[in-house]
Amino acid sequence: MDGGCVNNVILLADSYKVSHYQQYPPGTTLLYSYFESRGGKFPYSCFFGLQYVLKRWLVGPVVTRQAIQEAKEIYSGVYMNDKDFNEDGWNYILEHHGGRLPLRIKAVPEGTILPTRNVLFTVENTDPAVPWLTNFFETVLVQVWYPMSVATNSRIYKQVLHHYLSLTHDNLLTLDYSLHDCGYRGVSSVETAAIGGAANMINFKASDTVAGTCLLRKYYHEKTVGAHSGPFSEHSTVTSWGRHREADAHKHMLDTFKGRTFGCVIDSYDVWNCCEEIIGDQLKELVKENGKQGGCFVVRPDSGDPCTVVLKCLEILGRQFGTETNSKGYKMLPSYLGVCQGDGVNYNSIGKILDTVERHGWSAASVSFGSGGSLLQRLDRDTQKCAYKCSLAVVDGDEVEVYKEPITDKGKTSKKGRLTLQCEDGVYTTVEHGKGDPEKDLLVPVFENGELLKDYTFEEIRQRAQITPNEIDILNFLAEDK
């Protein structure tokens, strides 16, 4: 998951930061910065990923003589001179701190659901000789935006599914498995898949992005797996049988995975014929027999208008196999049948599909979803308007509140002074100017002088992120997002 020379912690910064140590006021001994979501697409953030960044890059003696020399060579080439690289500063860290970074980081516990415009973590130097270090590592620390945004995006999906399951079904037992992560191939790198896949697993336990489990096992104490999958056909495994043998392809799945839950893609040719004639007639008894042995046959349409296709699949299968009615009066396919929509899926389209399903008397429990690019890739740092800003400096022994207040964009106004995160009566507030109560501060020390102070398990993060009764009105949110 690494690229070339970028195993060197000194190369984890935007190049322009190399000269910043020369730009702060003379006599500066401390810089204190913070990270927040300044708003963005979603009204809250699910905080996740800082522990990965710390363990992966910053914990331990990360500054070495070799790293300094390599960085000097590269930055001297980038700057086209050897004067701007802070060789003395890095050597100081090596000689006085054994290569460990003299920084202190406090953060909200991972998995916390926090309204936007609140501090998520703070960073400050612990050695007055290296105040520039605080903002040098902005680049890599801000990359927490990605796992945090995926975890948040994924949780919005889950709220939509939670709403419709609560409305149309007897229980929420299928909720954690109602969205399948299909995003491995749709992201920019294996590392992205690992980080994003792990973030989604906070909310859902169905995934094909096994790289997410690998990350959780290494960095978050996951002892087994973060999510599960099973046998699903793809178009190549169906069409390789030939058009005239499509029924044989699906029968082969029934024979091979007897008594198990598995899925078959059904739109290789004529999705309606496949539902009605092949599955609902030719293979009907085999499908039912698979159910008697504890299995479930899941059909996967993969083209067309999702609202139309999902509903018509339900109606055809319902006619062929019969339906059950749950305690809330909604129709359901037999427990050995299901429909999984994996094309064109995002949290808005799920809402539209399930609204259509509900209006036609069907329970959301008969439908599941798969999502790829929209879940893991169609995000950027501005999705939640993530920013890292300095809010306090000590210059010649005096504290200076540091902030920006651009006349052209008040939304980019930054916070001032030392910050604490407090919660009163369920309302989170970031207190500025150092006026917060340290006893009420929800920011937890997680890193100091090269040592990890807090090591969260994935299970506690997942529990912290659970949906609670007092959540946002998801239908209003979807309406506003259109």
Short description:
By secondary structure, the chain is an alpha/beta fold.
Question: Would you report the number of β strands?
Answer: 19
**In CATH terms, what is the architecture of the largest domain?**
Alpha-Beta Barrel
Biggest sheet features: 7 strands, antiparallel
Model regions low in confidence, pLDDT < 50 over at least 5 residues: none
Number of domains: 2
Multimeric organization: single chain
User: CATH H-level name of the largest domain... which superfamily?
Assistant: nicotinate phosphoribosyltransferase
Rounded radius of gyration (Å): 26 Å
Largest sheet, spatial ordering of strands: 15-14-1-5-3-18-19
Helical amount among residues, as a percent range?
25-40%
| CATH T-level fold name of the largest domain | nicotinate phosphoribosyltransferase
What is the 3D shape? elongated
CATH class of the largest domain: Alpha Beta
